[in-house]
Amino acid sequence: MALALITGGGSLIGEGIACCLAEEGWEVVVSDIDRARAELVAAAIGEHAEPLGLDVTHRTEVTAAVDAIEKRHKQIDALVNCAGGFRGLGLTRKPFAETEPAEWDRILDANLKGVLHCCHAVLPGMMRAGAGSIVSISASRGLRGGPMAALYSAAKAAIIVFSQSLAQEVGKHGIRVNSIAPGSAEARWKALTAEDARGPMGRATTGRDVGNAVAFLLSDRAKHVTGSCLDVSGGTALH
Question: Which CATH superfamily includes the segment(s) 3-232?
């Protein structure tokens, strides 16, 4: 059974991804900085899911976790980078001129550096295996910047271009790298509003919307898809 490591697996999007992959026959490691939340998601999935407490902003912690997973399961077949966020980090939207460098670091560490840490940790094993797939969750703000979200937009845009660049480097090793840009998505920390239904589809992006897209990109149906960014915003990213 193929194994996928999911970061940010305790979020609604992470849970949707984990559930969809498990239904497709994947074994999943549901990791999250909140281990209790990861345990709840893994328990709901059942025997083919295991929880892991993981802070992706700590490089040594990520490396140790990947090494331990590879020892238990031989190899990691897929990495799904879902950890990150903005308001979920306890930050408030404000003009860039009013932000402080400490806020920049927090946003970039959680949303971009975490992706770099995890990709860097899993790639050696994937290269040895001659196969693997990486999907990183960006955002519609990574496709077009938004007011009072400059750093978040920059981090999510960087994920898309990083994925494109990495795809060109590791394709020769049988590894595919893609990203997904959800739109106004459901989250545990917010209540849905009329703003979430402003797009053409008339509703917020769900965790399963994103999970179905991830399952496709990790499957053989997408075996010739790499370096892509799949818009799963329900049309809200159109411009």
Answer: NAD(P)-binding Rossmann-like Domain (3.40.50.720)
